[in-house]
Amino acid sequence: MDEKCISKAVIRRLPRYYRYLGELLEDGVERISSNELSTKMRVTASQIRQDLNNFGGFGQQGYGYNVQYLYTEIAKILGLDRTHNMIIIGAGNLGQALANYVQFEKRGFKVVGIFDVNPVLKGISIRGNEILMMDELPQYLKDNDVQIAALTLPKNNAEETADLLVENGIKAIWNFAHLDLEVPEDVIVENVHLSESLMRLSYNLNCYVTEHKK
Ligand code: NAI
């Protein structure tokens, strides 16, 4: 299987398949047809077949999909079958909320370090991680195997922090700061902007209200 060939659109949908399949497993469901999955997930059965065919077609005619197998294969594709060590830069409200969220670890994303510039925060423990100061970061990255850095600091400081992370070998940035980071080609940035999601919600709400006034 060549992971590079799976389109970004499909990859974007995979976490949702993974979540639904996980729920099916919890309910003891062993196999499911694309039609049943389609009703549950409210996407067309042909979309499901197309998406899942992308990586080898786990379905069998007349049998449907083996839920456990599909769940495991999607986990492998998403890299959830291994642990990713993650650090958080900016130990304010958002950084601490992320550090406190236990479910990331269950998915293999382990928060191993939290950094800030505010000396008042130094040494405060969040789920077993003492907040470290930014000047400790380069050495920390030399001594520890870290794959992901979450940026939860003010946007004015985000670009230079991203540069520092990249200089010290970080290849994946989970960016919450509201700016588009400029990074080398071999560095991956995943932006999470809750306000953009809210704007889409607002748009759809307005559309819905307008439609129903007609
Ligand atoms: P906050 O003010 O509570 O925390 C920011 C922390 O970053 C502070 O502890 C501060 O000392 C630290 N900091 C400042 N400069 C730093 C540097 N150079 N290196 C390391 N740490 C540094 O702010 P909050 O509410 O936690 O928000 C953090 C960031 O996330 C802001 O940029 C905010 O706009 C953004 N945000 C993004 C959301 C999203 O959906 N993308 C949602 C909420 C906030």
UniProtKB/TrEMBL annotation:
Alphabetical list of InterPro entries matching this protein: CoA-bd, NAD(P)-bd_dom_sf, Rex_actinobacterial-type, Rex_DNA-bd_C_dom, Tscrpt_rep_Rex, WH-like_DNA-bd_sf, WH_DNA-bd_sf
Pfam families in UniProt: CoA_binding, Put_DNA-bind_N
DNA-binding region coordinates: 16-55
Subcellular location: Cytoplasm
Keywords, comma-separated and alphabetical: Cytoplasm, DNA-binding, NAD, Repressor, Transcription, Transcription regulation
Statement: the UniProt record of this protein carries the keyword NAD: yes
Segments forming domain CoA-binding: 79-180
Residues that hold NAD(+) according to the record: 90-95
Location, primary (coarse class): cytoplasm
Function recorded in the entry: Modulates transcription in response to changes in cellular NADH/NAD(+) redox state.
Oligomer and partners: Homodimer.
Family membership: Belongs to the transcriptional regulatory Rex family.
Name of the protein in its database record: Redox-sensing transcriptional repressor Rex
Gene, per the UniProt record: rex
